[in-house]
Amino acid sequence: MAIDQAQLFDLLTEYRRENWRGIQTPEWQDRIVRSMAANQEPAILKRIAPHWKLPPDAKILDLGSGVGNFVVACRNLGLRAYGIEPDRIGQGCSATSLQIARQRLDLSPFASALGEQLPFADATFDLLVLDQVIEHVNDQSRVLTEAFRVLKPGGAMYVACPNYLRFFEPHYKIWFLPLMPKFLGGLYLRLRGRDPVLLKQLKYTTNRRVRKLLKKFEPERLVDLNGEDLRGKFNLPGAAIASRKAQFVKQLNRFPWLSGPVLSAASFYVRAREGGCEMLAVKEA
Known about the structure:
Number of helices: 12
Mean pLDDT: 87
Number of strands: 7
CATH architecture of the largest domain: 3-Layer(aba) Sandwich
Structural class: alpha/beta
Number of domains: 2
Helix content: 40-55%
């Protein structure tokens, strides 16, 4: 029998406190647990909907499914979603993310597997999701090779990850130099009273690096979702823009010879200040 929300909250609290001890502060852990335990919609599906249509009776794989939020949300909508999770993050604890995920549904669609060796036949899934995963894997190229292998022709892959050109480390929730060398990062974290165990596992990701990785597989389409958001904001007639900086960029973007450089500079500024990388790769049909 599936656990209820109160039981889920208790399990997540135990998991975060044990597995993320020394990585995140208790305040951040509590905030994340409350977010994870809340009933959530599969926001990723809405995110990609303008660029790719989910086929009827689609099969979805969440590669690195964690405690199962995305898969559970999809299942609640009647979608055929599955998740795999090696559960490597952090220091280990009595309750793993995979164990928690398996208790959330009566019939568990979760399995233990590595992204470098997926236990599925070729062309099995319509949609693959790698949400905050690619920075954690041992061999990014091998994981993406496997992901494209099990993706159907015409299927889509959603990849989201941090942008390490930003002055922030999103796992530790701490100020961090862009692409800081690991040995300096470890010293810095120890000075801040943090355990560098997770930093040692991370692969620094940037928008350019993720795009380069995905282009090797020659997708039919490669959509930079954040870039599309930015273009829509500055190109759509009458788009609501609050800040003076954004209004200035929109005015410059009216000149064709300035449009490309201006949008590139604006995109770099936004990524470095605010967000990560989000890509949608569509496999050739």
